[in-house]
Design a protein that fits this description.
Layout: E1 7-15, E2 30-35, E3 53-57, H1 63-68, E4 81-85, E5 88-89, H2 91-98, E6 105-109, E7 112-113, E8 116-118, E9 121-123, E10 139-143, E11 162-166, H3 170-187, E12 193-197
Parallel strand pairs: 1-2, 2-3, 3-4, 4-6, 5-7, 6-10, 10-11, 11-12
Antiparallel strand pairs: 8-9
InterPro entries: LRR_dom_sf
Protein name: Disease resistance protein RPS2
Organism: Salvia splendens (Scarlet sage)
C-alpha cells in the first residue's frame, strides 16, 4: 500500500541520515523532509522518477553532496519545485540546479553561500557561467540568503516571471531591482515582477 503514496511531508521529523525506505515509494510526486546528514541525497533518489516537488533541509550542501549526485542525470528529472533551507550552498550545487530541465520554482531560505578565498578576502558570489541556464524557471525566491548579489544573467531566463526577495541584504535587493530595470529598458520586458519584503 505504501508504494502508492504520492505525497510525503515529514518535515516535522529531523533525520540523522536520509531514510532509505523512502526510495521504495516510487510513485512519490511530493517529498518534504529534514536531515542533519552531511552526505546529502543517496544516488537511489533517481528511482523516484515521478517526483516533482522536493523540499529538503540538509545541514550542508556542498561538494560532498555532488559527489553522490555528480550530475543532473542522477537527480529526478521531473523536479518542478525545489526548496532548500538552512544550508551552506556551494556554487557547484547552484550550477547543477541550472541544468534541471523542468525546474519552475526555486526557493532558497535561511542559507549562506559557501565562501571561497580571493587573495586575502572571502567572497560570496553566485555566478552563472556560459552553458549554465535555467530552462524553465518561473519563480525565484530568496529569503534571508547571505549572498552578495543575484547574477544579472538570471534576468535573461525567458520563462522567469517573478523574483521574490525577503529578509536579504541591500545588495541582493539592489541586484534584483537592477535585473528588472535592465529587462524593461533593454528588452522591453515589463512582465518580470520583483517583490521585496523586509
Amino acid at each position: 500500500m505504501l508504494r502508492l503514496v504520492r505525497v510525503l511531508d515529514i518535515m516535522g521529523i529531523v533525520f540523522e541520515k536520509f531514510p532509505e525506505e523512502i526510495l521504495q515509494l516510487v510513485n512519490l510526486r511530493y517529498l518534504a523532509f529534514s536531515c542533519t546528514s552531511t552526505s546529502g541525497l543517496p544516488i537511489g533518489i533517481s528511482r523516484l522518477w515521478n517526483l516533482q516537488t522536493l523540499i529538503i533541509t540538509f545541514s550542508l550542501i556542498r561538494s560532498g553532496f555532488l559527489e553522490i549526485i555528480p550530475n543532473v542525470v542522477k537527480f529526478p528529472c521531473k523536479i518542478r519545485k525545489l526548496a532548500i533551507s538552512e544550508c551552506v550552498v556551494s556554487r557547484i550545487f547552484l550550477t547543477t540546479l541550472c541544468g534541471l530541465p523542468n525546474l519552475e520554482v526555486l526557493k532558497i531560505e535561511y542559507c549562506v553561500f559557501e565562501t571561497y578565498e580571493v587573495g586575502e578576502a572571502e567572497e560570496e558570489e553566485w555566478e552563472i557561467t556560459e552553458g549554465d541556464e535555467f530552462r524553465s524557471l518561473q519563480f525565484l525566491s530568496l529569503r534571508y540568503y547571505q549572498l552578495e548579489e543575484i547574477p544579472c544573467d538570471i534576468g535573461d531566463i525567458p520563462t522567469l516571471q517573478e523574483i521574490f526577495v525577503r529578509e536579504c541584504g541591500a545588495s541582493v535587493v539592489g541586484s534584483a531591482l537592477n535585473i528588472q530595470k535592465v529587462q524593461k529598458e533593454e528588452y522591453d520586458n515589463n512582465d518580470l515582477k520583483v517583490l521585496i519584503q523586509d
